[in-house]
Amino acid sequence: MPSDPGSTGPVAVDIWSWSLAPSFVDIADALALLSGDERDRAHRFLKDIDRRRYITGRAGLRRILATYLGIEPRAVRFGYNNWGKPELDLADRSSLHFNLSHSAGEAMLAVSAHAEVGIDIEEIRPIEEDIASHFFSGFECAALAALSDGERLVAFYRCWTRKEAFVKAHGAGLSVALDSFDVSLETGEGQHLLERLDRDIGRRSDWALFNLDVVDGFCGALAVSAAGRDVKVHYRSRSARSANMASMM
Q1: For 201-229, b where at least 16 C-beta lie within 10 A, e where not — what string?
Q2: pTM of the full predicted structure?
Q3: pLDDT in tens, 157-179
Q4: Total structural domains within the chain
């Protein structure tokens, strides 16, 4: 488990990634790990590929969290806050924070002790409509419009994943207006990619925002409620492909 950093030490965040492809998992074994409500949700998917990806994602989440908690994957229990963010429904849940994201055939999970985390991964696909004007701030829309056609698509996903990661880490869901904060669209590294944050949401200095190393064709971001501390990110992939991971940021 990532150690408790205390009040001044760095915050440790583990990043796990795995494939949702059918060849990487026995779907029957994975389904057996899920709770009744998770199995019910799985059966509601209309497409078999979506059902399999959901099952594989939830089974991977359970297996990884079980290693931190020292329990069986089936014994992991989940609850949800008032805005629907998943959390551990266990006596020691305060010692472990996590967030899961999956897109197409890839899943990524962030795990940390005593720091809220949010993660988002997206497959980079062509955009057929003006999504930015509906979800991005004026600052972000202007920055996107200033880019060349060749740069704009990946920059859109940099912005999208950074905003999603922040909202998920904050935990208040759609009650956080997406134009109430600005993120950088630049490719820059480090933890200072949050440009502006409205005062009623919190202090910008309390948050750290990072690029994620992801497989080709994807974009990803991590947000951490670091309270001004440095953040140390450790990649701990469940897949042997981790050695080939390359940043798309």
Answers
A1: beebeebbbbbbbbbeebbbbbbbbbbeb
A2: 0.89
A3: 999 999 999 999 998 777 788 88
A4: 1
